[in-house]
Amino acid sequence: MAKRGMLFVISGPAGAGKSEIVKTLLKKHPDVRLSVSCTTRAPREGEINGVHYHFVTEERFDELIREDAFYEWAHVHQNRYGTLKDVVRQELNEGNDLILEIDVQGCQQVLQHDPDAVGIFVSPPSRENLETRLRHRGTETEESIRVRLNNVAGEVATAYSYNYVIIHQDWSVVPDALEIAVEEVYSIIRAKRCELKNRRDFLDQLSAELRAD
């Protein structure tokens, strides 16, 4: 029977850089996979349906809720996001280590219902840096930036319930901040793979072989 994969939930305030961290990590470390979420928001420039998100209508999202199809879902910044149960279960049952990149509301749901999930909070180094990142996106209106900044305090307060915190430093101060954050996340994944509970089957087999001699 294949070893069940591990679930890593990466979350944090909008603009903290979690999407860039996840995108870079997946390119550098193909042994980790991403669960593609559903959302009711419109695609941003360059986003591909089924790759970055499953873009669905409000009506279809309501149908999925009624069908109890979501592992978690939340209403965030005037849009809804959700993770499909079937996607997560299939990947984990096939032994794949899986990343969920979701908002803090969804992460709290996952951590409460799945004790084996690993929560990784991505934090900006400061409020000023977060506002700069949001403005540099070029995809946010002034109203959207105001809403997101007003939500930051509550989002950061949830970090105390996570297992790990990654501080994504200011790129103008730390030029390789992205690479540092990526490798910090991957070091967490590697360390979790080495935990006793994930190596117990190996030790059992090795012990049996040694006793047979």
Q: Could you characterize the architecture of this molecule?
A:
This protein is α/β, with parallel strands linked by helices and 213 residues long. The chain contains 8 helices and 9 strands. The protein has helices spanning 18-28, 58-66, 85-93, 104-113, 127-137, 142-157, 177-193, 196-212, and strands at residues 7-11, 32-34, 38-39, 54-55, 70-76, 79-84, 97-101, 118-123, 164-167. The chain has a 5-stranded parallel beta sheet, with helices on both faces. The chain has a 4-stranded mixed beta sheet with strand order 4-3-6-5. Helix 1 (18-28) crosses helix 7 (177-193). The longest helix has 17 residues, at 177-193. The mean pLDDT is 89.
